Structure formats: C-alpha cells, structure tokens
Amino acid sequence: MSAIRWPCWNTVDGVPAQLCATEAADLLATVHSGLRGTDATSTHAVFDYLTDDSVDFAAAPAIRPVLHRIVDDVRDCPDLTWGTCYGDGPEAIRTGDGQIAHIDWGGVLHAPLLWDVADWMDGYTDPDQQRFVDACRRGIAEIGADEFAHLDKLRRLRDARTLRFAAYRVLRADHYRTTAERDLERFRWYAARLGIQLR
After folding, report:
1. Closest CA to 83 of 133, 37, 48
2. First-to-final CA distance of the chain
3. What's the CA gap between 149 and 127, in Å, rounded?
4. CA neighbor of 46 nearest in space, from 91, 85, 7, 6
5. pTM for this model (two decimals)
6. Which residue of 20, 21, 77, 194 is most buried, as measured by CB atoms within 10 A?
7. Angle at which helices 114-121 and 128-139 pack, to 10 degrees?
8. Closest-CA residue to 133 (of 84, 142, 119, 32)
C-alpha cells in the first residue's frame, strides 16, 4: 500500500500523517462535505488567475495561449459542479488515537470540485491512483459520477496553475532567491508536461 508522496511536517505523538489511497479519498469527501454551502465566490477564482494578462511572468508569449486554451476546455464542460475547493495537496495529521485531521487552509479557491481530485491523485501511482479515484467517485456526494470523465482536463488546469505560479517566481528570481532553483525546475517540468516549447 503506497502512501501519498507530499511530505507533511506536522506530527502528533511523533507519527507523520501517511495516507493510503482510500484514507485520502475519505478525507477529501469529509472536506467537501464540510465546505458545502460556503460562499465560493469570496475565494480565489482559478480562471481569473490563469487569464489575467496584466501580470507578467517568464516565457509569457509561449505560455499565455496555452493557459487560455486550457481554461476554455474546462469552460466547455457545462456539467461540472463548481464550489469551494481545498485547492492544494493534502495536509493532514494523524492523532494519537488514529484519527485523521486536515490542516493548512491557505489554498482555498473557487473551481470545479473535481479540481481537488485531480490535484490529490497525482500523489499516487497506479494501482493506488486508480483506487483513489474510484473511492472519490463512490464517496464524494458533491461530485456527480459523470463529471469524472473530465478528470484529465482538470489535471491540465491544475498543471496550468502550477506552471503560472512557477513562471511568475522565475521572472522574479532575485526576490525568491531561496527557492529559485526549485522554481526553475518546476517551471521547466510543468511546461514540458503541457507540451510548451521553451527557448
């Protein structure tokens, strides 16, 4: 049974929060149930972030058209359920009695709820990745089963946000000196993943 790859520095009784695929799916179902009914429009809007052409970033002429196409692809999916998403990879702690709790809510955003599934699934490789997706399909009541047909588009949307974030930091490497090497590596990796040729 593989555990999720994202490191969690928070521990309780010295025990890191290592989540197997089904535990992560159960946690995400709990998160979405708790977020139901919140005012999603008051959170960060992912489409606005990706299509705001007033902000400059590295390799913008090559990247901007791809970001817009990816956003348009998701906009063309009318059956997606929108709402408040956790917006980031899982950050969990396991208490001394074995309970799992979710922490770090700094990435909350307004997006299709499938966003979180697309984000969390990349912490696994098959067969655990498929186990996670199947468990989410069964357990997250807020997302219709038919919506999972758009999962690849949501993964590209998530990749686009990560690329946009890294590209902004690469252009301002003098300001982000402590993470400049990691930002550049992430920038190149996600550009290649989205099929963008960088000069």
Report:
1. 37
2. 41
3. 18
4. 85
5. 0.84
6. 21
7. 160
8. 119
